[in-house]
């Protein structure tokens, strides 16, 4: 099974509202944008969230995408709603979608 098929399987397994065709399309788009990790990383603690750099994006179990600011806050994509790492980690397991390269 390739990475796109595996991503589609993960999407449909975690989010029952996605049909397999939509999940495959999402997985293909993530792959095309080079945002799909070879092995999905799941975050379960606030400490793991705090370790991610600004610009990182995670997916919660409702299908919402959250992006971290340089100040360490997490914003729900497309809205003014924000959460701290502890609050976000308590709500669900989070799948890492994107981690920007950090220049050192």
* Strand order in the sheet with the most strands: 1-6-2-3-4-5
Domain module tally: 2
Helix content range of the residues, please? 25-40%
What is the subunit arrangement here? single chain
Order of helices and strands: HHEHEEEEHE
Give the overall average pLDDT.
77
Number of helices: 4
Radius of gyration (Å): 14 Å
**Helix/strand/pairing class, anyone?**
alpha+beta
Strand % is 15-25%
Low-pLDDT residue intervals, each spanning 5 or more residues: none
Shape by Cα distribution: globular
Distance between the termini: 36 Å
Structure summary, number of beta strands? 6
Q: Mind summarizing the main beta sheet?
A: 6 strands, antiparallel
Per-chain topology:
Layout: H1 3-14, H2 20-32, E1 42-43, H3 46-50, E2 57-59, E3 65-68, E4 74-76, E5 82-83, H4 85-91, E6 94-98
Describe the 3D structure.
With 104 residues, this protein is an alpha+beta fold. The chain has two domains: 3-32, no CATH class; 42-98, no CATH class. Helices cover 36% and strands 18% of the residues. The protein is built from four helices and six strands. The protein has a six-stranded antiparallel β-sheet. Helix 1 packs across helix 2. The radius of gyration is 14 Å and the shape is globular. The model has no long low-confidence stretch (mean pLDDT 77).
Jot down its keywords.
single chain; 104 residues; alpha+beta; globular
Quick summary:
The chain is of the alpha+beta class.
């Amino acid at each position: 099974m390739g990475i796109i098929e595996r991503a589609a399987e993960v999407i449909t397994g975690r989010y029952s509202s996605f049909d397999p065709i939509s999940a495959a399309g999402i997985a293909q788009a993530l792959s095309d944008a080079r945002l799909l990790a070879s092995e999905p990383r799941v975050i379960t603690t606030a400490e793991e969230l705090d370790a991610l750099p600004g610009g990182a994006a995670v997916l919660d179990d409702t299908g919402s995408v959250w992006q971290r600011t340089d100040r360490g806050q997490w914003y729900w994509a497309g809205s003014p709603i924000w959460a701290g790492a502890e609050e976000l980690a308590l709500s669900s397991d989070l799948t890492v979608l994107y981690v920007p390269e950090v220049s050192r």
